[in-house]
Design brief:
Layout (H helix, E strand, L loop, with lengths): L2 H6 L2 E2 L5 E5 L2 H4 L7 H6 L17 H4 L1 H9 L4 E5 L2 H4 L8 H16 L3 E5 L7 H5 L7 H17 L5 E6 L1 H10 L10 H25 L4 E7 L4 E2 L5 H24 L1 E2 L7 E2 L10 E4 L5 E4 L8 E4 L9 E2 L2 E2 L5 H12 L5 E5 L10 H17 L4 E6 L19 E4 L4 E4 L1 H12 L1 E2 L1 H7 L4
Parallel strand pairs: 2-3, 2-16, 3-4, 4-5, 5-6, 6-10, 7-11, 10-15, 15-16
Antiparallel strand pairs: 1-19, 8-9, 11-12, 13-14, 17-18
Bound molecules: beta-D-glucopyranose.
């Protein structure tokens, strides 16, 4: 971050910039008993400290109280997801009451001046789908399309910003390569199949949404890591980083532009539904991945690292969740701008229970976004992950990403200092020199 520049004048964001937060259905709604996560949570050892989603943040019963808090902070956008297992509890049977609740949720956001962005798949699957092999079987594409058709038909008058699938990269990696998400597999071939099915389902969903709502804005949220070689000037590290980027990011991004699915997820096969199947780029960014060359093809020629001496966030069961690298977000915004479509930062945040790092991280990442905009990137909104502490998948309640702290047992909420900071920035549509002086130090 250029400290000289940022300490003297406010960092202004464009008019109509979206200041939001992001969440997902299973993590906040509570009592989602009919999906694969609820089942996984019952298995000993599956979730850190045996955490359970339980009532989560109680949003199925009362999201509106948190929407009041968002409006009170001056936020004007929120990204959420709909739960497939509620909307289609059995194959082909759609639940009108669930749809009514989602309609009420979206209407409640809009009534408070908060623009919804709805994601159609965020890690959770109905139990019936999982029992049939879930995303491993090609029939999922048609099933997803039918769910998307019903959902978009029911909600299109209340929402026009859609995400098809959240972070296919993370879903495949965690569920099929590392085995830390259900179905807890370590099966590379299954992972490649799932990734391919997610790509094809994205293309079909993109076309389906547009056929139902021509004015819709449709994209997906990709987990982007701003891969780099660990050692500056090392060609071997740069090569290893390129291999990781190719598999983790490029295959997806190329397919949604050209329609071609490259190896190993495809064989260069072309799918018209996939071609140009995005109206914007959704970037989920938490940290950067540095790659050090290893002569081992099974490790994709590289070992993933964080920068020596970097500031680390809170740790999950496998160590630090992330390291502070806001310049990675700048680089991604600038790189994605070359695709010629608007950009949204659809997730960014960190686990920090005592909030002693979040103010600086928030400012650093927002300043990076502002600098990318000043350098020509068309970034239209930022959705902080997340509004209130929520059920953090395999880490249970062990990592706290909220601007607002939650005690899940009592549902008592306590705003962290970052909530007030984010509210000030959103209201001003700018970061002030005083905020930077108070929370950042020379880097
Ligand atoms: C996911 C969220 C998750 C967040 C923090 C993202 O990968 O989309 O569901 O809570 O990261 O780990």
């Amino acid at each position: 971050m250029n400290n000289q520049r940022v300490t003297q004048t406010p960092l202004q964001f464009p008019a109509h910039f979206l200041w939001g937060t992001a969440s997902s259905a299973h993590q906040v709604e509570g009592l989602n008993r009919n999906n694969q996560w609820w089942a996984a949570e019952a298995k000993p050892g599956a979730i850190w400290h045996e955490g359970k989603s339980g009532a989560a943040c109680n949003w199925w019963a009362d999201a509106e109280a948190d929407f009041d808090r968002m409006a009170g902070m001056g936020l004007n956008a929120h990204r959420l997801s709909v739960e497939w297992s509620r909307i289609e509890p059995e194959p082909g049977r759609f639940d009108g009451a669930a749809m009514e609740r989602y309609r009420a949720i979206l209407a409640a956001l809009t009534a408070r001046g908060i623009r919804p962005m709805v994601c159609l798949h965020h890690f959770s699957n109905p139990l019936w789908l999982e029992a049939r092999g879930g995303w491993q079987r090609a029939e999922v594409i048609e099933r997803f399309q039918s769910f998307v058709r019903y959902t978009v038909t029911g909600l299109r008058d209340l929402c026009s910003d859609w995400l098809t699938i959240n972070e296919p990269q993370v879903y495949v990696n965690h569920a099929f390569l590392e085995g830390i998400f259900p179905p807890h597999k370590r099966d590379t071939l299954a992972g490649l199949r799932v990734y391919r099915h997610m790509l094809l389902a994205h293309g079909v969903a993109y076309q389906t949404i547009h056929s139902l709502q021509p004015e819709a804005q449709v994209g997906n949220a990709s987990a982007l890591r701003a891969y780099r070689g660990e050692r500056d000037g090392s060609r071997r590290d740069a090569f290893a980083a390129a291999v990781h980027r190719y598999l983790g990011e490029d295959i997806w991004l190329r397919a949604i532009r050209s329609g071609f699915i490259l190896p190993p997820m495809g064989h260069g096969d072309w799918h018209p539904a996939l071609r140009d199947s995005f109206d914007f780029i959704g970037i989920n960014y938490y940290t950067q991945t540095l790659v050090r060359f290893k002569p081992n093809p099974l490790k994709l020629f590289g070992e993933r690292k964080h920068k020596e001496g970097a500031e680390l966030s809170d740790s999950g069961r496998d160590g630090p969740y992330s390291w502070y690298a806001p310049e990675g977000l700048y680089d991604l915004c600038v790189a994605m701008a070359a695709l010629g479509k608007p950009i949204y930062v659809t997730e960014n945040g960190l686990p920090d229970a005592d909030d002693d790092q979040r103010p600086r991280w928030l400012l650093g990442h927002l300043a990076a976004v502002q600098r990318a905009i000043a350098d020509g990137a068309d970034v239209r909104g930022y959705y902080h992950w997340t509004f209130v502490d929520n059920f953090e998948w395999a880490e249970g309640w062990g990592l706290r990403f909220g601007l607002i702290a939650l005690d899940p047992a009592t549902q008592v909420r306590t705003p962290r200092p970052s909530a007030a900071l984010y509210a000030e920035i959103a209201r001003a549509n700018a970061i002030s020199p005083a905020q930077l002086a108070a929370h950042t130090h020379a880097e």
